[in-house]
Amino acid sequence: MVATRGLFFVSLFALALGKPMGRNMKVHESREGIPDGFSLRGAALPDQTLKLRLALVQSNFPELERKLMDVSTPSSANYGKHLSKAEVQQLVAPTQESVNIVNAWLKENDIDAKTISATGDWLSFEVPVSKANDLFDADFSVYTHDASGMEAVRTLSYSIPAELQGHLDLVHPTVTFPNPKSHLPVFSAPIKPEAQNLTSRAVPSSCKSTITPACLQAIYNIPTTKATESSNKLAVTGFIEQFANKADLKTFLTKYRTDISSSTTFTLQTLDGGSNSQTGSQAGVEANLDIQYTVGVATGVPTVFISVGEDFQDGDLEGFLDVVNFLLDEDTPPYVMTTSYGQNENTISRNLANNLCNAYAQLGARGVSILFASGDGGVSGSQSASCSKFVPTFPSGCPFMTSVGATQGVSPETAASFSSGGFSNYFGIPDYQADAVAGYLSALGSTNSGKYNASGRGFPDIATQGVNFEVVVDGQLGGVEGTSCSSPTLASIISLLNDRLIAAGKSPLGFLNPFIYSTGASALNDITSGSNPGCNTNGFPAKAGWDPVTGLGTPDFNKLLTAVGL
Ligand SMILES: *[C@@H]1O[C@H](CO)[C@@H](O)[C@H](O)[C@H]1NC(C)=O
Ligand SMILES: *[C@@H]1O[C@H](CO)[C@@H](O)[C@H](O)[C@H]1NC(C)=O
Fold first, then answer.
1. pLDDT (tens digit, 9 = 90+) per residue, 158-170?
2. pTM of the prediction?
C-alpha cells in the first residue's frame, strides 16, 4: 500500500508540473537569437494548436552517401547503376530500436502521431502550445516577419529527453524560421521584343537584350528536335500558390516555338492540398517562367508541374520536405527536378538542413538530378540585404544537389550580378569539388577574407542565362530575371541529354556534380568576368575554372553529348 501511495503522490506531483518526473532533458537545438528580419511579438496562446513533426535518426546514411557517390562518379564501375526504392529505404529507415523508443515516449505523453514518410523516418502530430512547451522545455512565441507581416510560432531552443538522443533527429517547426516569398523572380514591365529568326542557329542579335527559347537553343546548342523517350520525366515544383497557367503557355509556345504544337503542355501532381488554378489573374510569374522554359525548351520531354499546397506549412520548408518524400515514395520518380525557391541557410537549423540534404542524396541515388536556383542576392543571400558577413543560401550549400547560378549577355557571357554564390557554414567541401574550390581560393587570395567560410561547400555548381527572359503572364508579355530563370533552363538541357542517354540504352545522369566536376567540366563554357556584389563588397569575382558566382560555367549541349559518351 505504501508503494501505491507513493505512486499516487508521484503522479500528482507530475501533474502539477505538467511533465513526468525525473526526466533528464538535453538541449537539442537552439539559435543564438531572433533571425534578422523577425521581431518577437509575444508569448503564443497556450491553447493554440501546433502541428509538429519529428524526424527519427536514419539508420545508415554513411552507406547511402557512399553508394550515391559510387553510382554518380563517371570513373566508377558502378556509374549509372542507380538504387531501387527498396534499396534506398533499407539504408535510411530508422532502426527498430529508434522506432520503439520514440513510440514509447509518444505513448507515455498521450500523443497520437501519424507516419508521413515511406520509411517511417518522419512523424507528425498536433499539440497545444502549453503541452509543446512542457514536452520540449521550449518557449513557443509569436514572431513577426517585419517585411511581410507574416506571423510564425517558434522557439529559440528546445530540449529532448536524454533517452531520445541518437534516436530523435529533430522537431520541426521549432528553431527554423520561415522565409516568406523567398527569392521569387522580378517581373519587369511588359516589353516588346523584336521579331526573331527562329530558323537561324546563329545567336539572334535580340538575345543581347531579351532571352527566348530560340536564344537559349542558339547560345547552348540545345536541339530543337523532339525528345523521344516517354519514361524521361522532368518535374517542376511549385509552392506558395504560384500557379502554372496553360493558356499562357499556349500563347508563349505560339509566339516562341512556332516549330512545335502550341498545344504542347504539362501534367499536374498535387500534394498538401495543392492545386493549379487556371484563372488568368492567379497565374504566377515564377510558375509560368518555370513551365514556359521547361515545356518550351525541353522539346518533347514529358513535364510535370508538382503543386505543393499549404495544408501544413507556414514557410517553404515543410513543402520542401513533403515534395521530396512524395517523390521518394514513387516507384519511378522524374529524372530531373527543378526548384526556384530557397532561403538563407542561417534561417534553418543545422539538423533540418542536414535532413533535407540527406533526402536529396536519396533521390540522387535513385537517379534523379536535383536542381535549385542559387538565389538572387549575390553574396548577401537569397535576396539582397544588408549584412556584414556573406550569407550562403539553402539548399545550395547541400553537397547532394546541383546549385544553378545566373549569367547574362552573349560574347562574352558574364556573371549576373545578383547570382548568389559562396560557401556553406553547415556543409564541408565535398571531395568532388575540393580541387576546384582550392584553385579558386588560391587565385582569390585575401579578397573577402573573414567574410566567408573557406572550409564550406562552395556553390553554385553551374550557371545559365538568367536576365531578361521573356515570359507570358495573364496574357501579358514581360521580362523576368533571376536564378529562377537558370534552374529550369538547365533542367531542360539535362532532360534532353537524358532523352539521348535513355534512347541509347544508358542510364539517366542522376546526381550531376561528380560528373560536372570531372569529365563534364570541359563541356562547359567557363565564365571569367563579372561578380556578385553584396554586404558592401564587390562580392566574388568570376575567374577561370570554378567560381562562387557561375560555378564551372554554362552548358554546351553538343560538348555534353560527347562528355557523356554519345
Ligand atoms: C532566317 O535565317 C535563315 C538562315 O540564316 C535565312 O536563310 C533566312 O532568310 C532568314 N529569314 C528571315 C525572315 O530573316
Ligand atoms: C565553417 O564550415 C565548416 C564546415 O561545414 C563548419 O564546420 C563550421 O562550423 C563553419 N564555421 C562557421 C563559423 O559557421
1. 999 999 999 999 9
2. 0.90
